[in-house]
Amino acid sequence: MCLPYSIEKLHTYIRDLDTSNQKLASVQEALRHSEKLAGMGQLSAGIAHELNNPLGVITMYSNILKEELPQDNPMVRDLDLIVEQAERCRKIVGGLLNFARKNQLNVDETDALKLAEHSLNSVIVPDHVTIHMSSSLNNPNVMLDFDQMTQVLTNLLKNAIEAMPEGGEINLLISDNPDKVIFRVKDNGSGIEKENMDKLFTPFFTTKGIGKGTGLGLPIIYGIVKMHKGDIQVESNSNPEKGPTGTTFTITLPRNRMV
Length: 259
Ligand code: ADP
Ligand code: MG
Hints:
The chain is of the alpha+beta class. It contains 6 helices and 7 strands. The longest helix is centred in the N-terminal third of the chain and has 32 residues, at 37-68. The mean pLDDT is 87.
């Protein structure tokens, strides 16, 4: 194996990664200023496709280089970092593509309780978190896109789990009236700070550490709920002096959005 050649390659890929990161940062900046979610979908799809290929090349060659090097070579750690960061970019790009795809619905008559159960089963619940589900539905039938609404509920449940690193309880409540079906995800986690309440649905807003949050969960949820002609509300308390902390997201969907 020729090491100087590997080092040169490594530098090229570090530069490529840097360029990709810069592109991504400028896209994020552009998206932040974009007012319309629809326009954003198109922009993000275009950029995400552009970024996917170079990111794939970076990951692949970094892995090849890593295999070529003896395990005790200090460059192995640098390569691990490159792979990790490229993976992070790919996650963001994946989120963008997902975001862009979410502009049409596949609506069917669905059982709201089955949707809630399916969403619950799609989430990995850590030992320190308990989830209770309860329903007071009079009529479980509702017209909705099952897959996309599953994504809405699982994302809300994931956020709730992530807000309770020391453990806690989540309540998933389903209720209805003749015209509407209501899903409520209630947690007793950290709560959301007041100054963050109006940023929640802004793409890329996240308070989670680097590599942990993409800040695309709630904007995607918002888009899906709005396409169903539904509504999303948040109540939260992050100040223990004002009472128990926690957050409740309430999603209200028309039983038949055509009406
Ligand atoms: P991400 O989860 O990737 O950070 P989201 O769009 O899902 O992105 O959420 C944006 C931010 O909203 C989170 O980083 C967090 O600060 C806040 N948030 C969302 N749900 C909750 C919750 N249940 N409890 C506390 N904070 C929350
Ligand atoms: Mg999230």
